[in-house]
């Protein structure tokens, strides 16, 4: 996918959910994966023409896994003119070696978010941009339904009242396959995830299920995503932001 196409989808999401305001300082959470690097690249490119002016920071919370070198990410940030901060932690050791968690993802996610939000505050940012794509939306919805027995999904725009930080997800309209295509085309410096649980999670099972359902039912992913948008899940209806819904006056 070309940059112009990525920017079109990102800008649409930003406008539909009023994600960016004049004068925002936005920290982009960088895992080193294709999604977060695509998001950083897109938000930097959008700075040139978006009517509301905003600043960018890039932050990586290092979990302490051996073999994860973020030097190429530092070079990318230097090249595009974005300040880059790496927060060193022992989260990986705590989760796997000390706690020996059977469900490591939940604790890891909680600790990682805490470290990330703390650094966001220290850098004086009022928003954190996260790299969840369209596939992540569908997967999270189905995971909540099948494993928790509830109708739930993260929202495009979430105000974290305790931290006074707003989390935004500008990639929600971009399918994962398009993120992959863009990252490959632009040769983004993707850092391979060295987590022991990578590829062996509940989310991977859900991905396989979605692929199977997509082969059987036409437009399964688009219909599921649109159902989420039309639902009364908190944060997903445009009216909550004082904005008209697309296709309505």
Write the layout of secondary structure elements.
Blueprint lengths: L2 H14 L7 E6 L4 H13 L7 E9 L8 H10 L2 E6 L2 H8 L5 H19 L4 E3 L4 H15 L8 E4 L4 E4 L7 H10 L16 H15 L3 H11 L19
Parallel strand pairs: 1-2, 1-4, 2-3, 4-6
Antiparallel strand pairs: 5-6
Helix pairs in contact: 1-2, 2-7, 4-5, 6-8, 6-9
What does this structure look like?
Strands 3-2-1-4-6-5 form a six-stranded mixed beta sheet, with helices on both faces. It is built from nine helices and six strands. With 249 residues, it is an alpha/beta fold. 32% of the residues are buried. The protein has a single domain (3-239), classed as HUPs (Rossmann fold, 3-Layer(aba) Sandwich). The two termini are 31 Å apart. The longest helix is centred in the middle third of the chain and has 19 residues, at 104-122. The protein is globular. α1 packs across α2, α2 (34-46) packs across α7 and α4 (91-98) packs antiparallel against α5 (104-122). Helices cover 46% and strands 13% of the residues. It has helices at 3-16, 34-46, 71-80, 91-98, 104-122, 134-148, 176-185, 202-216, 220-230, and strands at 24-29, 54-62, 83-88, 127-129, 157-160, 165-168. β1 (24-29), α2 (34-46) and β2 form a beta-alpha-beta unit.
